[in-house]
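[step 3/7] fold_predict: job queued, chain A
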Amino acid sequence: MRAIRFHQTGAADVLRLDDVPRPSPGPGEVLVKTAYAGVNYADIAFRKGHIKVQSLPFCPGLEGSGTVEAVGAGVTTCRPGERVLAFKLRGSYAEYFIAKQDAVFAVPSGMAMEQAATVPQIFMTAWCSLAVRGRLQRGQTALIHSAGNGVGIAAVQIAKHLGAKVIATASSPAKLELAKSFGADELINYSTHDFAPETMRLTGNRGVDLVLDGLGGEAVGKGIKCLADDGRMVLLGFSSGDPMVRFHVLDLVRGISIVYGSAGLHQLPRSEYAKVLDLFGSGVLKPVPVTVFPMAQAAEAHRYLEERKGVGKIAIKMA
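[step 4/7] structure written:
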């Protein structure tokens, strides 16, 4: 089979197509013939060497969709021929991938396969960040940064489902309009406005109950200043390139807490993931827009994400 791998870390051009043996499922495992692989910032971090891989060459890919080809002993969650989505993967950038049965789910009715490949990582992360780690409650207010990207759009929808008011920030009018179309109540363009005073103005100087931040760096300290007493700062990364979190220790006197949004994500019970997917079937949640690249253009897909050219999510077509 063909797989997209890198033999050394570096720029997007290190990605290449290799011929590799097709894997076989072991006990509790599922072999999936890949339709699409979702592209995530973590894939770029692996490729650049920011997250260490066990060995080289390495095939990225944390999530994907496809058709069950074979199952190992003891598998009860799916059967050959079924359309599925899967996450918690290592290596979905290939024509076949192996997944643990507990991370494999039937594709919700009416969902396209390219959408299915991009749903798991962003929606499970947003759910864990807001409902589990952030404990967002009905009637509260959430400030969601980068609301035009995959996790941001997912977070806007989940926050609204939980009954919260959403203040969305993004870097362009187009991304803000997209966030609005998915339910955001208030919009801030952080390329032209300082989000901190705007947030305080929109909340009557009360502040918000939760900030979802994937920017890192200076934005974290400013976000903490936007928190109401007992508010939660939920971190998801540092797309700004600065992993340092800076805040005044006296802010802790106000009872604020700082947590990492996806901490414990992979330890959630299968029922928690199923709960999120059921919200697609009922129409509460909708997939984000997807930009598709062919397998031969994996490097272009990575550059497209790194340069923040699009909105929503990116998928690589493997079939």
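[step 5/7] annotate
The chain has a mean pLDDT of 94.
The chain is about 25% helix and 25% strand.
exit 0
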